[in-house]
Amino acid sequence: MTRTDVTRRRTGRRARLSGLGEDQHPGSNVRAIADIERAGQQERRGIERVASQVAARCGTAGFLWSQIVLFAAWIAWNSWPGLRHFDPYPYILLTLMLSVEAIFLSIFVLISQHEEARLSDRRNALDLQINLLAEQESTEALRMLRQIGQKLGIDFEDEPDIEALEKATHPTSLARQIDRMTRKGHT
User: Fold this and answer.
1) SS3 assignment, position 34
2) How many domains does one find in the chain?
């Protein structure tokens, strides 16, 4: 039996002991989220993948240092007496190449940021759905606890917060409330 098999058996045993099904175990949630992330990455078009790779490579210290060395060598070659200068001062060819590089790098970064924003929006929507489901489950659990307490003769009249928490959350009214509060903060 391999280490992976032992881990699966332990995980399955813990899930059965906790009352969770195999697909409800927290580890399965992590795998599900990883699968969703992979699916989002695979949905990207070719240019989006290239843009992300270029942006990732160009956003490193190694790229910065290579640019510094390249520019220093270019300027040194074209300034050193006795060498054939292919781009003499004011280095017009170097300026042109840097401008073109800046244009393409900014486009790649914008494409990459757009793709990251799309994936972030997807994560936020999933997060919102999970939070709403958790809120519904919590509200239902509070209702059940109140009913159990009432059957046991426990008086909840002194607890006004419990009644408020038992009410279902309405996302549209919350969104309006947030909009009103953020508008007040910006004026």
Assistant:
1) helix
2) 1
Does the model's pTM come out above 0.85?
no
Element (DSSP H or E) covering residue 141: helix 92-151
Say if 137 falls within a structural domain.
Answer: yes
Looking up tokens 């695979």 gives 42
Query: Does some domain include residue 3?
Result: no
Provide the residue range defining the domain that includes 122.
43-186
Structure tokens at 182: 């953020």
The answer to whether residue 69 sits within a structural domain is: yes
Cβ-in-10-Å burial (0-12, 13-18, 19+) of 96 comes to: exposed
Chain centroid to CA 53: 17
Q: What is the pLDDT of residues 56-99, one digit of tens each?
A: 999 999 999 999 999 999 999 999 999 999 999 999 999 999 99
Sequence length of the chain is 187
